[in-house]
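User: I'm curious whether this sequence folds into something compact or stays loose and floppy. Could you predict its structure so I can see for myself?
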Amino acid sequence: MKRSVFAGWSLGMAMALAAVAPARAEMRTDVEFAKPGGVSLTLDAHVPDGPGPFPTAILVHGGGFVRGDKQSYIKPIFEPLAQAGFTWFTINYRLAPQHRYPACVEDVETAIRWVKDHAKEYKVDPDRIALIGESAGGHLVSIVGARGKGKSRVAAVVPFYAPHDLNYQADAKGGKLGESLSALFGLTELNDPAREVLRQGSPSNYVRKGLPPYLLIHGTKDEQVPYEQSTRFQQSMRAAGNRCDLFTVPDGIHGMGAWDKAHPEYKTHMVDWLKQVLGPGK
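Assistant: Here's the prediction. I'll summarize afterward.
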């Protein structure tokens, strides 16, 4: 008799705990958001528990425009965004040299529109969407953030160690295009016509008044994308009357994965900044 009473109490307690325990966040993987030219582009989505709508981030991986995918390079910021209660999406885009510029830019813009079109399903606040990208992905979110109009406009942009000025990038490499820029634009030499192509493909070319706030994150010992790419872009943005903050990682090299032991505070700073600029919502 005692055993059955205890069993009944245990079952009732378990049911009560289950009733008050919060449901887990949902992870949806390999969702197709576009199919340009027959190329299936997919994303992974983290959807928090609760009614929402939630502040949202769209993440764009790096890889020199020629490699990488939605689960590479940018993974260190998945957990901080999840812990902060964000809906977030990490996306694939078409890679060079099979797909030249501006295919990758168009894919990011398409992803923004798709997220807004599916806002209710994924508990997205369409007025609080941030673009976050690293390296080549930082370049893409920077240029898309600057070009964005209508449904492709976002509320905030966070480029990690991004090449904002492609001519400056080539000059910093000794006047060489390198694999990434050659593949992205189909260029073979750095002549005057090539420099005009690079200028047109640079986020710095699109700076104007009225852009969303930017947070630049960059390490001072980056040997792939000079730290000055961020300081120069910040100066240009502020001169145009835009908000552009810079979080410097002392002695940071290229790649956020290398920062976690010495400077994990970049994650907290990013989340705090996003909460501040995106606001509490309606």
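Summary: The chain is about 35% helix and 20% strand. The mean pLDDT is 93.
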